Amino acid sequence: MTKTQSSTSSTTTRLGSQAAFFFLGNIFTLLVGWPLQIYVVRIIGADGLGVFGILEGGVSLIAGLIAFGLAPTLVRFIPDHLERGEFTCIRKLVGLGFIVLLAAGSLTYGLLLWAMPFASLQWPVLAQHQAAAIAMGLLIPLGLIIFFLQQGLRGFQEIRYMVIGSSFVQLTVKAALAVLFLSMGFQIVGYVWAVVISVLCSVVWMAVGLRRKLASLPASTDDECLGVRNNAWWKFAKIQYSGSLLGMGMAYLDRFLLGFLVGAHPVGILLVVKQLQQLPLVFLQMFLAVASPMFSAAHARNDAEERQIIYHLTIDWVVRLSAPLFIFFILFAEPLLSLYGEEFARQGKYVLWILLVGQAFNLGCGPVGAMLNMSGTERFVLKLDVYGMVISTTSVCILVPYFGLIGAALAIAITTVLQNCIALWAARTMLKVRWTDRRYLRWILPFAVSIFTAIAAAIGEREPGPVFLVINLVLLYGVFHGVSLAQGVHSDDRELLSHLFNRLGLMRKSKQ
User: Fold this and answer.
1) What's 349-393 look like in SS3?
2) Do 288 and 370 contact (CB within 8 A), yes or no?
3) Is 75:154 a contact under the CB 8 Å cutoff?
4) Whole-angstrom distance, CA of residue 447 vs CA of residue 481
5) Residues 191 and 44 sit within 8 Å (Cβ to Cβ)
6) How many CB atoms lie within 10 A of CB 485?
7) For residues 346 and 367, what is the distance between their CA atoms, to the nearest angstrom?
8) CA pair distance 99, 120, nearest whole angstrom
9) What angle, rounded to 10 degrees, do the helices at 70-84 and 228-261 form?
10) How far is CA 101 from the centre of its chain?
11) Mean pLDDT of 452-478
């Protein structure tokens, strides 16, 4: 085996095997989280979900103001310090960041409690849901800490432990408590408490995991982090913080503007549709969690070849995993949204189609933003965030007042497409990373056969129900990947499957 082949094989198994844990977590989220979302919406309605979304957006906005870019700094520098053997720096970075965020979050929550009576006088909706707002405010410190812990585990590439905490533990607690509280008639405040308690349980789980990783590091007396390395942290954190401040307006402006101009009802519909179109995104996110620290490590070694390999592998696997879901959402949008209520199907179908176009382009571009951010071009990523803010703010302010929900969807899709186009140009220019690869030609036939199958199924059913939808989603995945296998297994896929089978002991059993 040549050096290049060996490098590719190692990258394939590291990226794919760790992402496999995310895949299991996503399957669990789909099986539990999706029915839970439908149940919650059926109980509290579009208006209730809209109020929840506005409160959630306000809390997330406040948390973003005091995040200081510390969590992404862990993903960027923990792999870098591990490569250099700077273990004292890792302990200092994690400990200092945790203390700062815990103090800032707790203080901010105290200020929120103090200001609540004054804010209720200015905003009648808040006065009606003050108990829910007070409970939701706990997500300010908890949200800061859980994101910090997640990124710390990602930096150590401790993916399995992170997935168990953020998917299995958190969602199980959330589902159980949401059903309990809503069945007891607590409505919005009950759902809020279910979310808060589930996040707290996940925080405890991941804090234990990260502490164990720190305790397992070898003893070290290095002091490099007191000088040059320490400055590098703060420079990176400042850039990340600046970018997050710009991104916060893009993330919540649409729901705030809709709520101000129209009311909570369309906000609830927008949240449901956005959550649906973000389901394919979980495939990219699961690879990003693994690929980001790998990009950082490759940059530390100045290994441009491995960076290119990681990028192509991620795009190929993300597209193939998400393609059947895109086809399903596009062709079965109306019956799918009708599960939430007829108002969602009537007002949300075209919104979902528009958002799916932008999301498909986003996944097709792969982890280009994370690659730029982890490869020493974080200053350009900050500029990219500025461009995105300008495009998003302009689009939302122009389109939402005139077109409502459709305008919000168009603004999101336009921003997504333009940002990715600029990022692709930057990756090609600055990192010499190309998007094209011959492996992408293998997508054509599975796409064509799956689309034909979905159209045939949609024509033959007049009143599709939940069972019909589930069967067709499973069918589309079977057809798409069945055709892919019929074309022949790519060498990277074969390497990954062999590695997973070895880990599970299947290869040894088959040989016996």
Assistant:
1) HHHHHHHHHHHHHHHHHCCHHHHHHCCCCHHHHHHHHHHHHHHHH
2) yes
3) yes
4) 10
5) yes
6) 11
7) 34
8) 31
9) 150
10) 21
11) 82
Query: What's the CA gap between 384 and 426, in Å, rounded?
Result: 10
**Are the CB atoms for 56 and 358 separated by under 8 Å?**
no
Furthest C-alpha separation in the chain: 74
Strands (E) in 77-120, as ranges, are none
Report how many helices (DSSP H) and strands (DSSP E) the chain contains, helices first.
Answer: 23, 0
Q: For the segment 104-134, what is each residue's pLDDT rounded down to a tens digit?
A: 999 999 998 898 888 777 666 667 778 888 8
* Two structure tokens written together for 283: 């495939």
Helix (H, G, I), strand (E, B) or coil at 138: coil
284/473 Cα distance (integer angstroms): 19
The tens digit of pLDDT for each residue in 129-146 reads: 788 888 999 999 999 999
Q: How far apart (Å, rounded) are the C-alpha atoms in residues 7 and 13?
A: 10
| Residue whose C-alpha is closest to residue 286's, from 11, 18, 3 | 18
Match 């812990």 to its residue by tokens: 149
The HSE-up count of residue 225 (CA atoms within 13 Å, CB side) is 22
Distances (CA, A) of 144 to 70, 156, 375: 10, 19, 25
User: Token pair 């804010």 is at which residue?
Assistant: 119
Location of structure tokens 């977590």: 25
DSSP for residue 262: T
What angle in degrees, to the nearest 10, is found between the helix axes of 70-84 and 281-301?
A: 40
Asked if residue 139 lies in contact with residue 59, where contact means CB atoms within 8 angstroms, the answer is yes
What is the value of pTM for the model shown?
Answer: 0.69
Q: How far is CA 490 from the centre of its chain?
A: 27
